[in-house]
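Same chain as my last thread, 243 residues:
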Amino acid sequence: MKVPLSWLSEFIDLPTSDPATLAGVLGSLGHEVEGWETISPTFSGVVVGRVETVSPHPDADRVRLTQVDYGSGDVLEVVCGAWNFEAGAVVAFAPVGAQLNPGGKPMEIEARAVRGVVSHGMICSASELGLGDDHTGILVLDRLGVAGPDDVGRDLEAVLPLSDVILDVTITPNRPDVMSILGIARELGAYYELPVRQPDTRVDDTGPETAAAVEVEDPLGCPRFVARQVSGITVGPSPLPAQ
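reply #2:
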């Protein structure tokens, strides 16, 4: 089971974040840690920017000209080929000198001319930042709820807590109570004698009557069976974490 320490910290305030120490503690409790992975951003120098204006390129139909405020006091002209945003969008902006690593290929952002207009940076997509595979449009941070106009100029690493350590824990079949992040938190809470925060499991039952119906035909073999109808669900990628 993968156990991100950032997720674990939602339930317990551990005295250490050292993966080797936590692996030893979990091992002493009967939960072998096969290893751990340290993850970190693959970019540097990327900041939160705000698109001030969007206008047509004078000599190209597939790209547009934007004016980007990135908190330095200057507004830069940037050529962008994405069309999933308009003026006012809060975006991930890589100014000249920023380092990206899309697809494992390191690159440094430079000012370059695009059909006669110099672009002073790059408005980034999720794939260019190593945050996903989507390269069809830029990463619009305010639309995702992770940053707003007040964050303009902040380092993107500070807005998105991307650094983490993920433990790979083996849970034996006789301990289903530990097969969750909360279960791991309870084990560590008992070891360190620390309180564990319980998640809010309250459910709003208001709304129209459900169409789900359950009939228990064998009350001895199944004394209780519960069903719930859930609506208004949108299937999509997992959201980015908000700081």
